[in-house]
Structure formats: C-alpha cells, structure tokens
Design brief:
Length: 154
C-alpha cells in the first residue's frame, strides 16, 4: 500500500506539522509507504487572478504526482464517506498508489478536480489546508487500522 499526500505550500513545522508527523509515523508502522510532498504556493499579490494562481498550482501538483497512481482531490464539494467505506476505497485506490492532493488557500483548480480518480470531502465546511492535511492523515490512519483489524477505529 502506497499513499502520497501532496499539498500546496510548505506547511509550518509547528503544531499542525507535529500532528501530521505523528499520524504519518503511525501509518508507516503498519508497513504502509506514506509520503508527503509539497509544491510551491503561488502568491497572487494583485499580479495574478485567483484562477491563474489555481492553474499554476495545479500544474505543479500534476508534476508532483507519482507514476501510475490514483489521484484523489480534497474538496468540500467531494464525496462524503463513512470511515468503513473510506477504508475499503483507500485499499483499492492505493494499488499501486493513491495520491491525495490538497489545495492552497484558494483551493484546487476545477480542471484538476474534474480530471482526478475521485474527489473526497473531509467536511462540508472549508478547512485550512494545514488542518485538512492533519484530518486526512488521521483518517488514513483510522482506515489502515480497520484494514489491519486493530481496534483504534472504535
């Protein structure tokens, strides 16, 4: 099982980074290849439109994707899943690899979202991308415990 989380912008290594790292370590202890990647955030600063920023970030996200992977975009408009359903989907997506893409402050480019294997919602509310990474890592960990028969998920 191979899982990659690709996010726009390098996250701070403070409290969100420490939480993400904690779950990443737990996931890896199950023998799962779990990797994080980052692409640079594009600063709009009046020079670029929001749409242009999202397009440039989408191009960088596409380049960061591993070869032969299923790509899952995180979006409030994505599919909401119960944990057990997510666990089964994760198992299918991660053969050979699942790549979750997390947008920056402006979200993900619509064309990118429409081109991926699936779109997942962690919440109908918009989450800061730093927090979304932590929630995603925790849910991946929870799904892996279900797949491995470990009681954490109850």
């Amino acid at each position: 099982m191979t899982i990659v989380v690709i996010a726009v912008g390098r996250p701070d290594r403070g409290r969100y980074g420490a939480l993400f790292d904690e779950y990443a370590g737990r996931i890896r202890r199950f023998g799962v290849t779990f990797e994080e990647r980052f692409v640079p955030a594009v600063k709009p600063e009046g020079r670029f439109s929001d749409a242009h920023v999202r397009q440039r970030e989408a191009a960088a996200l596409r380049e960061a994707l591993p070869a032969r992977c299923r790509t899952i975009a995180l979006s409030p408009e994505g599919q909401v899943m119960k944990t057990e359903v997510f666990a089964r989907r994760l198992e299918a997506w991660s053969a050979p690899a699942a790549a979750f893409v997390v947008g920056g402050p402006l979200g993900l480019d619509r064309e990118l979202v429409q081109s991926v294997s699936a779109t997942l919602s962690l919440s109908a509310m918009t989450l800061p991308h730093e927090l979304a990474r932590v929630v995603l890592a925790e849910q991946i960990y929870r799904a892996v415990t279900i797949l491995r028969g470990v009681p954490y998920h109850k």
